[in-house]
Amino acid sequence: MSQPQTPAARTREADVVVVGAGPAGLMAARTLAKEGQRVVVLEARDRVGGRTWSDTIDGAFLEIGGQWISPDQTELLGLVDELGKETFQRYREGENVYVAPDGTRTVYAGADFPVSPGTLAEVERLTAILDALAAELGAEQPWAHPKARGLDTVSFHHWLRGQSADEEACNLVGLFIAGGMLTKPAHAFSALQAVLMAASAGSFSNLLDEDFILDRRVVGGMQSVSEAMAAELGDAVVLGAPVRTLEWEGSEGGIGSVTATADGGTAGRVTVTARRAILAVPPTLYSRISYVPALPRRQHQLHQHLSMGLVIKVHAVYDRPFWREAKLSGTCFGADQLVQEVYDNTNHGDSRGTLVGFVSDEKADAVFRLSPEERRAAILASIAHYLGDDALTPEVYYESDWGSEEWTRGAYAASFDLGGLSRYGADQRTPVGPIHWACSDLAAEGYQHVDGALRMGRRAAEEAIEALSPAL
């Protein structure tokens, strides 16, 4: 019996080699190509899109990865318009549901949570403090502010309780950064990291406003944005090509050179020689590459202080959006519940109804210890507590588990441990020789979002073009 043949080794030349074909890498490559630079994109997966991924599961179209656009995400909105794509608003008609710490379910209208006047006042006071800090420190260089170290050496959990004795208010405010964004327990990251998260969205008030932060989606799915960019680049994008080695040289101010070798993937061995490299992958994957010579000590230390969060994105598809019959929006919150957030995620033009819910950090740890059947039952029971027993019997049920993805290892993005942002923040975007960095994890505006990935991709490309300009 004949053995399968390994594809022949291929060698390509480029001005810039981009590692990663997610939104950041593809925007970098697109920007470079428009400026006449030769570019090759090496992607480990057999698809483009990175942490955006749309697929049909059991006959239902699901956005497995990132999907929403907020009104301030102008980089993404501009690209969507340029590519000729349409968007649609998330369904939000009707009343919302809140489940209190004691399990009491309340249906409510308006922006204010149905909590006691004292708790509501504390939520508003904490929001005002965070809004002021976000405006004062900003998203571009929060680590440079005189308050940075003080905020970075206390956990967000303990900082909140230093501001307020109202536990329900602290948990509600914590939900929108810990569970909703960083997907880590609030005791695992600093108050400075929380301020960056708020500043990157324009304010903490914006993070509290689900109609702002989760405003609209792309018809056909967010991954289609990456697919359209990749189509423009043609055979410059190589799939199934995980980069194993990056050889580099070049002093500060020099053009430098790099050789990227992708080995062992479905594309076979691919070697790209270039003058610059852009690493457009999450920081948790930097160590999957061997660097020759090794990266400087500062980078080794920095990368060890960044880690991914953990969240299960749950999709439940029903024969109809039954919650609308009860004049409910499908929007649900409960900081102490297993599923802390639920939203109507029905697709454009679909007669069926889709709910999406999120199980974050330690709650995700707990349900991953269960069997798949037990986990499904527990998650659906949590959703049913918000929306009724019809939620128990979806036609399609699917869990997005990005923590199991070899080329991601968590969600939604990486953040620093206590003290890490003030210690290393200034160095995380600084090129090393001919190597540039680009991903949503390093963004200022749009941090952790597709918009931030696009901004970082463009920024890294412009850095590379400037570095290459003496040779033009």
Automatic annotation (TrEMBL):
Residues 24-464 form the Amine oxidase domain. FAD binds at E43, A44, V243. GO terms for molecular function: oxidoreductase activity. Its cofactor is FAD. Substrate binds at F358. Keywords: Oxidoreductase. InterPro entries: Amino_oxidase, FAD/NAD-bd_sf, Flavin_amine_oxidase, Flavin_MAO. It comes from the Bacteria. Signal peptide: none annotated. SUPFAM superfamilies: FAD-linked reductases, C-terminal domain (SSF54373), FAD/NAD(P)-binding domain (SSF51905). Belongs to the flavin monoamine oxidase family. PANTHER family: AMINE OXIDASE (PTHR43563), AMINE OXIDASE [FLAVIN-CONTAINING] B (PTHR43563:SF1). This is Putrescine oxidase.
